[in-house]
Design goal:
single chain, 293 residues, 14 helices
Length: 293
């Protein structure tokens, strides 16, 4: 049970993140920009965690300035820079390209983490597993149409988002060793927002009036802020601590799977044989990565 719970939590977080495209799409159609959505959802998440911390007894600063800089890096890589590069990529390249590149994050995370932490390097069987899961992601997203339309700028932005999440996973290793999950997650939200100040100076409007005029948009934003941001970031950072960064990050491979299943349930999109094949490859690959040899 002790081993099962972190896996379940990681799966549920990825499943929730896989459904947020609907909420984000509705907010975009309602007139909000990707940056405004990010800022508003992180404000909600930060205020909730701040309130919780004040009740429980708050800790404001890290043990030393080096650790505080580590928190800044986490806020940028897991917050502002990640969301901005991912969302901006959609304006310059196809959804297929973005989904494939961003969902291959575990492949790059495994390589980067292995360079810095010998204990988290994959053995041969685990390497085969992560490559198999990566292949499964390509099969799921391409869905039998194996044609890529290259867009240098858009694909580069998607790759930047992929690297941001990989480095976020790397930096969470020392952060989780030294600090509790609530403190680290609160810092991620705080510095994610602070790093958006230059954007707010140029574009100070947040279009909050759109949320007041359209209550359904407010509910979507509250879901993104309360559930997809606050609860999911807390749960994800805890899962990283319990499973290790490499194994936990491999659950990102399931992101396109949960997205398509959600679209099938809500939007009546079709489940194809390619989707089933790709999902099986992902699940088998993840099983191999989790094996302890």
């Amino acid at each position: 049970m002790k081993r099962f719970l972190p896996h379940l939590v990681a799966f549920l977080v990825v499943a929730i993140w896989g459904t947020t495209f609907v909420c984000t799409k509705l907010l975009l159609l309602g007139g909000l920009t990707p940056a405004q959505i990010f800022i508003l959802r992180f404000i909600i998440a930060y205020l909730l965690l701040l309130g919780y911390s004040l009740v429980r007894g708050i800790r404001w600063l890290s043990n030393c300035w080096q650790d505080e800089l580590l928190m800044v890096a986490l806020g940028v890589t897991g917050g502002s820079l990640y969301f901005l590069t991912e969302n901006s990529a959609m304006n310059y390249t196809t959804t297929t390209n973005t989904s494939i590149i961003v969902s291959l994050c575990p492949l790059f995370a495994s390589a980067i983490i292995g360079l810095f932490f010998r204990s988290q390097r994959l053995n041969r069987l685990q390497t085969v597993g992560t490559l198999m899961a990566a292949a499964g992601v390509v099969v799921v997203v391409m869905n039998g149409h194996f044609v890529l339309h290259l867009s240098p700028l858009g694909d580069a932005l998607a790759f930047a988002a992929c690297l941001c999440w990989a480095f976020y996973s790397l930096l969470m290793i020392p952060a989780n060793i030294r600090y509790d999950t609530v403190f680290v997650t609160r810092k991620v939200f705080f510095y994610g927002l602070v790093s958006m100040i230059p954007y707010l100076i140029v574009h100070p409007e947040l279009n909050v009036h759109l949320l007041l005029d359209q209550p359904e948009l407010m509910w979507n934003l509250l879901f993104l802020g309360c559930v997809a941001s606050m609860l999911c970031f807390l749960a994800w950072n805890w899962a990283l601590k319990q499973l290790g960064a490499v194994i936990a990050t491999n659950y990102v491979y399931l992101n396109p799977v949960t997205t398509i299943v959600f679209a099938w349930c809500i939007l009546d999109e079709q489940i194809t044989s390619w989707f089933i094949l790709g999902t099986l490859l992902i699940l088998l690959g993840m099983y191999l990565v989790d094996r302890r040899l």
